[in-house]
Task: structure prediction
Amino acid sequence: MTGEFQRPPAYSGTWHPDAIEEIQEKAELGRYQIRGQATKRHNLPSFDDLVFTPAGLSRMPLEGYRERCDTKVVIGEGRVSRPLVLERPIMIAGMSFGALSVNAKRALGIAATRCGISTCTGEGGMHPEEREHSSKLVMQYLPSRYGMNPYDLKKADMIEIGAGQGAKPGTGGVLLGLKMSEEVAKMRDLPVGIDQRSGCRHPDWMGADDLYMKLEQIREVTNYEVPISIKVGASRIANDVRIACKGDVDAIVFDGMEGGTAASPTIQLDHAGIPTIAAIAEAVEALHDMGKQDEIKLIVGGGIKNGADAAKALALGADVVYLGTAPIIALNCHAPIYLEDYERLGTTPYECQHCHTGLCPVGITTQLPKLMARLDVDEAADRVTNFLNAMTMEIQLFARSCGKNKVADLDPNDMRSLTQDVALMTGIPMVGLNGRKPWWTKF
Amino acid sequence: MANVETLTLDCSDKSTRDINLAIRQAAEDGVPAVEILNTQARHNIGVGILKPIHMIYRGHVGYYTVGLCDDVTAEIHGSSGWGVGDNLLAGEVVVEGNAASSAAPSIRGGRVVVKGNAGPRAGIYLKSGELIVGGDAGYMSGFMMQNGKMIVCGNSAKGLGDSMYQGVIWLGGKAEELGSGVAEVEPETGELDEVLEMLESYQIKAPKAFKKLQSDRSLWNFNKHDFAAWKDAL
Result:
C-alpha cells in the first residue's frame, strides 16, 4: 500500500477509529501497547464536578493580602524524631532517575527546596544529584529494590513503601531499553539496554502480617527517626487503609487512576484503579472508621493539575497532594519547541506520550545526552517554582474565600457537587439540594 | 564496651529496639562478636548493622535477620524466618538449619549460606553476591536474579531462575521446571572446582554433579516472534 491517508476528523463507521488503530497497532507489535503520561479517559468523575461555596453573609472571608493563610503540614509530628515538615500541602511524586533525566531531577529538587516541599526518588535508587538538590527527599522502598541500601535509607527524610501506583496498579515498573543507559543500569544492577520489567510484589513480604515486620525493619534501620508512608494505587481503598493503619504508618498515599507514568501498558492506564476523587472519599471514611484521621496523614495524587483540584482534595479530607505530571509539564513537557522532533515521533506538543521511548524532544524523559542538554536546569527550576507558587496561591485563594486561615481547615462543607455521581460518592450535597446529610456528619 | 571479646545479649528481657541498639553500639566500639541468646524466632534481630561484627544467634530466628546490613558476619544455630540476609551489601550469613521464604532477597554482595532447605523465592532479585543452599530450594527461587551466584545442592521446585537477567545458578539435583528464559550451559574450566571448594569450606556435602544455568537472554528485550516466552513475562 502506498500513499498517505489522512483519517477524517468525523467518522461514520461502526467502530471508532481509535479502536481500529489500536487493533492494527497490536497486530503489528505483537504485544500490548505501552506509553507514557496518563489515562485518556475524559469521562471519569473529577474535581471539576465539585465547586466551592465561598463566604457570603453567613461566613466572613479573609483578606487576600493582609491575613495569613497557613499552608504548613507536618508528617510524623509527635511520632518520629525527624518529622517531615512541608511548607505547603504539596509533594513531588516518585519519578525515578531513569524515567527522568538527571537534569529533570535536579530542576525538580531545586524548585521543591525553594518551596519547602519534598521530592521523591522513585524506583531507580537515590541519585546523589537528587539528594544534593532536594532538601527534603522521600526514598521509595519498592519491590525491585533497585539501588537499595541502608546508607541511602538513612539519608532520606521519609521512607515510602511502594505497593502500587495509580497508572498501573497491581503491576510493576517498566523501563524500555533506550532509557537503560550505562548510569541507569549501574544504579539498578542491570545490563545496559534491556527492557526492564520490575516485580509487582515485594520479594520478602506478601500479606499484612509480613508488612508489619517489614515496617519494623525499616524503622529499626532508620532509628525511628523519619516518617514512613505506604503508597498504593487506588483500588481497594477501605481494606488497604485498615492494613496501613494496623501497621501504624505515618502517612498513606493513594494514587488515583488519573496518575501519570513514564511507561505503562495503555490498557492498564484506562481500565484499572479508581478515580482520585473517589479514592479520597473512601480513604477519609476508612481513616475515620479506624479513628486514625488525626494521626495518619492522607496524601493523594492522580491528575491534580491546579490549585482548585488541590484545594478540593484537601477539603475532601486529604492532607497533602502529590504532583507528578503537573511539575513535569512545568519543566517543559509538551512545550512547542523542537517541533521537528515531535514530528519525527509522529506526534505533536500537547499530544505527546513518548516518555517510554526515551526520545523526549524537550529532554525530560530521556537518557540521551543530546536531548538531556535541551533542559536548562536553572530555567526549568524557575518554571517549576513559579508553578508551585501559583498553585499554592490558588489553594490559599479558595481557603481565604471560604473564611479559613489554614488551608488544612477546608472541609466538605465548603463545597457542593455539580453531579449526582460525585454527590453520591463523596457525600457532598448537590447544588440546590441543601438538606441531605452526608456520611461525614456522623463523626 | 571496648576490650570485650564477645558480648552476650539475652533477648528474653529486651525489646527488638534495645537488642539492635546494643549490637550497633558493640560494633561501633569495636567488639568483635556478639552472642545472641534466647532468640525465640523473633523478627528483625540484627538489622541495619553497618560496622563489622560477628553475630552468633543461639536458636531459631524470625523475619529479616541480618537484614540491610553491611560488612557483618553471622552464624545462626537454628532455622531462619523469611528474608534472611535481606539486601546484604557485604559479609557472610550462615544458617545451620533451614530458611523460610525469600532467603537472601535482593542481596547486593556478600554470601548467604543455608545448610538445610530454603523455601520459595530463595535468591529472589539477587543483585550480586552468593547464595548457597545445601538442600532443596522452593518455588520461583532465583526469580528475576540480576547477577551473582546461587548454588542449590538439592532439587528445586518450579520456576527456577524465572526471568533472570544475569548471574549463574548451579543446580545439583533436579528442577521440577525451569523458569522462563533459563538455559543450561556447559561450565567453563575451573568454575565447578570453585563451587566445590566453596561447599567444602562449609562442610556441605556436594552432589555428584552440577548443572550450570543462566539467562538465555530471550527476555532481555521484547521479541514479538517469541510470544511463548513473553506471554508470561510481560
Helices of chain B lie at 16-28, 191-201, 227-233. Chain B has a mean pLDDT of 95. Residues 98-233 of chain B form one domain. DSSP finds three helices and 13 strands in chain B.
